[in-house]
Amino acid sequence: ELRYPERLNCAEALLDAAVARHGADRPCLLTGSETWTYGDLLRRANQIAGVLAEDLGLVPGNRVLLRGPNGPWLVAAWFAVLKAGGVAVTTMHLLRAGEIAALAARTEPDLVVCDHRYTADVEAALPGVPAVVYGGGSGDDLIGRSEARSPDFAAVATAADDVALLAPTSGTTGIPKITAHFHRDVLAINDTFGRHVLAARPDDVFTGTPPLGFTFGLGGLVVFPLSAGAAVVLMERATPDGLADLIVDHDVTTVFTAPTMYRALLATGKGRALTSLRTCVSAGEHLPATVWRDFHAETGLEIVDGIGCTELLHIFISAAPDRIRPGSTGRVVPGFEAAVLDEEGRPVPDGVAGRLAVKGPTGCRYLGDDRQRGYVAGGWNITGDTYVRDADGYFWYQARSDDMIVSAGYKIAGPEVEQALVRHPDVLEAGVVGAPDPLRQMIVKAYVVLRDGASPGPEKAAELQDFAKRTIAPYKYPRSIEFVDSLPRTLTGKVQRYLLRESAAGQA
Ligand code: 3UK
Description:
Blueprint: H1 10-22, E1 27-30, E2 35-37, H2 38-55, E3 63-67, H3 72-83, E4 87-90, H4 97-107, E5 111-115, H5 119-125, E6 131-134, H6 142-146, E7 163-169, E8 177-182, H7 183-198, E9 205-208, H8 215-228, E10 231-233, H9 240-249, E11 254-257, H10 259-267, E12 279-282, H11 289-299, E13 304-308, E14 315-318, E15 331-332, E16 337-341, E17 354-359, H12 372-375, E18 376-377, E19 380-389, E20 395-400, E21 404-407, E22 410-413, H13 414-421, E23 427-437, E24 441-450, H14 458-471, E25 480-483, H15 497-507
Parallel strand pairs: 1-10, 3-4, 3-5, 4-7, 5-6, 9-10, 9-11, 11-12, 12-13, 24-25
Antiparallel strand pairs: 1-2, 7-8, 13-14, 14-15, 16-17, 17-19, 18-19, 19-20, 21-22, 23-24
Helix pairs in contact: 1-2, 1-3, 1-7, 2-3, 4-5, 7-8, 9-10, 10-11
């Protein structure tokens, strides 16, 4: 049982405490060109909190939508919102206006804090919501306005179970579910996975690719390193070569990324140069045993696989150093409970496949959503994955049990891509499923029925792909399009996606 004081502000408990414990001069956030110490981050977060509370009228409980690529100012803004008692609505900066509008409809932000390069979609999606930008060097942005502020800001004394974060999940229909997380949850991920699996030290240097708007990134690139007094190198865009070079240049010890990137790192041929690495965490999608073995053979490193989800904030089943079974996700992280259940919610025997269910300190609370009933039963959070547990308590991933496509660690709802495609005037209907792929594990594949008069072919496919990238986040676009005369349907008219899945698998 984890215990926290009744009054707890996680930003203060993480950041002010790190400065007190490790000193203001330790390196904290690094980019290719900058180094912020812990003292710099605390001062800038406090100054921004001052602007938010005093100029922009933020009061405790207000919701602030944050949008930007990974970088130090986004981290400072996140701490500022929380120190001022606000609720951070974290978003991935690649989302398009329609997607932002959909999650804003549920989260109802009072204010937007946005990187100056990503304002257009926000203005289109949220007319009337006050917005403040950071960056761009104009001087009247959040950064410029904060500079004259006091370096001190007394954190609002939030309760341990006040909401700190509203984190959107992509959901299986494309209508986002929003999960709420408390101040204590932010510390709880470190007191579970952080303490028992990661065991980071002040001399660790972290890096990784997940966006901070994705809780995998928030934990791996902010909560865990700062809890340890470690440094973290943040990058806006990660190519495999760039990541390999960055690891070497900064003597990175700890990396957080998805299996696709571990595969791509090997393909760069730079694997043997990654000698500074001590801990490699993989999450977001299944880590196949072949990738684990290839990476081990090349680098000598044992990747730590872990399954987490937005609903539970971070990783709850994980391989632990020294007792890894390649191909297995590992065992339940201390502090969580996990089980494999049948359709009626009864545990199945070891060795039998069923629905993965999790209980823990961090979840699961959907914001005003009827789907809570389907995903949370008897206190269990049903993740949507099919798993087998063996007699030794190791969990083995089998498949997603719904229409969610997991591609290179991104979650993509088939129906959302379908809805985007049918907005194109030439598309009559579309069925979207995952097709196996050697690099990304799955790619988004669309079966498209065109309207009379439109002609199928590579040009039309390219046009539809372009259209999809402009309508929804670009990573969701169908990498493969097949034109068909009709979609398979049940007698009741439902698209039979399992038949499309079988067809896609058969061709691969
Ligand atoms: C899949 C995995 C097999 C699985 C996440 C770490 O991925 C995260 O959160 P999401 O809400 O998606 C959750 C779903 O992703 N998945 C994640 N990790 C694994 N499948 N093996 C894995 N190791 O379908 C799960 O239900 O986007 C991961 C930390 C925080 C996170 N939010």
